[in-house]
């Protein structure tokens, strides 16, 4: 953790690659969805603040995508996606609603780590990654770093930005890119990528 992991991340070219993906929204489709044991869904933006959070269009579309393409897979979903998914299907959902440490922001790594534990408890080996197309590259790297085997489906690039999101970085491609460059460096410093 620290300067060594940050330097390795930058010098390896991984930082440049992830920055290009953060700017373009392009990601690599990988694996066979038929091998997945569950869907692992990451939220992208939201409307409002605690305790009145609403999902917003990005999370609504992520839930619809999961329901349409993977209706028979059990789901581990972050709160804003789970709120919509539960309205679309009677299938049980394992929710990731808050950080395990009180008063800490529920970030991508924490969601992935909680999902890893839930998968282990159930004997699930492969997660189908569900995230906004611009978020997929970082979410995938975090999952891989945590030892999760993931499948990344095509079609997530169609998930829209939520222009009214209370999280300003999820309102547009430009806003995402400006913040993501710094988030990637932070995560590399923490040795999360």
Sum this structure up briefly.
The chain has helices spanning 3-11, 14-24, 56-69, 79-88, 108-122, 136-145, 173-189; strands at residues 38-41, 75-78, 93-96, 126-130, 149-151.
Description:
With 193 residues, the protein is α/β, with parallel strands linked by helices. It has one domain: 3-Layer(aba) Sandwich (Rossmann fold). Helices cover 45% and strands 10% of the residues. Helix 1 crosses helix 7 and helix 2 runs antiparallel to helix 7 (173-189).
What are the key terms here?
Rossmann fold, single chain, alpha/beta, 5 strands, five-stranded parallel beta sheet, 45% helix, 193 residues, globular
Mean pLDDT: 94
Backbone structural class:
alpha/beta
Look up the CATH topology. Rossmann fold
Question: What topology, given as strand order, has the largest sheet?
Answer: 3-2-1-4-5
Distance between the termini: 11 Å
CATH architecture: 3-Layer(aba) Sandwich
Q: How many DSSP E strands?
A: 5
How helical, in percent, are the residues?
40-55%
Largest sheet geometry: 5 strands, parallel
């Amino acid at each position: 953790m620290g300067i060594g992991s940050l330097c390795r991340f930058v010098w390896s070219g991984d930082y440049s690659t992830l920055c290009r993906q953060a700017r373009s929204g392009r990601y690599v489709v990988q694996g066979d969805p038929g091998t997945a044991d569950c869907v692992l869904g990451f939220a992208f933006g939201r409307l409002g603040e605690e305790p009145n959070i609403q999902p917003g269009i990005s999370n609504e579309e992520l839930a619809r995508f999961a329901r349409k393409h993977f209706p028979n897979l059990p789901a581990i979903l972050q709160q804003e996606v789970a709120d919509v998914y539960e309205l679309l299907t009677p299938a049980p959902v394992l929710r990731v609603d808050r950080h395990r440490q009180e008063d800490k922001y529920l970030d991508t790594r924490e969601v992935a780590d909680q999902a890893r534990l839930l998968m282990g408890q159930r004997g699930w080996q492969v997660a189908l990654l569900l995230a906004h197309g611009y978020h997929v590259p970082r979410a995938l790297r975090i999952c891989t770093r945590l030892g999760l085997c993931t499948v990344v489906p095509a079609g997530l690039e169609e998930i829209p930005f939520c222009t009214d999101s209370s999280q300003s970085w999820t309102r547009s491609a430009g806003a995402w890119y400006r913040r993501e460059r710094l988030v990637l460096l932070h995560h590399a410093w923490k040795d999360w990528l």
